[in-house]
Amino acid sequence: MRNSSTDELLAKRIVRIEGPITDEMTNNCMAQMLYLAHRDSTAPITLEIDTPGGSVTDSLGIIRTIDYRLLCPVHISCGETIGGTAVAIVARGARGFRVASPTTTFMFSRVQEDPRRGVDISRFNHVFAKLIAERAGRLEEEIFELIRTELHLTASAALAFGLIDRISGRPEDTRPAGLSAKLETVWGRFRRLR
Predict the structure, then answer these.
(1) Coil, strand or helix: which one is 105?
(2) In this predicted model, what pLDDT tens digit does every residue of 21-39 receive, in sequence order?
(3) Which CATH class is domain 4-193?
(4) Pairing with 108, which of 129, 154, 159, 173 sits 20 to 30 Å away (CA)?
């Protein structure tokens, strides 16, 4: 679905993911990314993401497009909410170009799928944990624990954790001192379990 606003964004090589991730939104997003990659396979594409997440299979379609079908780098610009499956989409962006606003909240949650699709989702929490861990420089088990406990992170905690590379409006060399107390508690429990 194209309109003048979409055309203006495409001219700037920007693709938006807003609202719940659905089949229609995913098809539009993938088509726009492939169109931009066809026009220039080396110039970056910026994904502006503000979503609570959504369909597992649709989110994996976006991730597969980023990872396997595009030669150009995908920069990430995070809005206010990055939830569920969208955390993995953010993590798959080009390292050094995953940016969040100071007020962005990252919400880890167990994936859920519409039962009418007939998809067995029991393994997908581990799939998403692996996808995030690969790009955050963490162990898959650490990410799975965050998903299991449905932890929320601030932008500063996401930066310290390795999900993003920068917070907009802050100097690039400014890194937070450490992780939040709640995240440290989860790490402590995880380490004791190992």
Answers:
(1) strand
(2) 999 999 999 999 999 999 9
(3) alpha beta
(4) 173
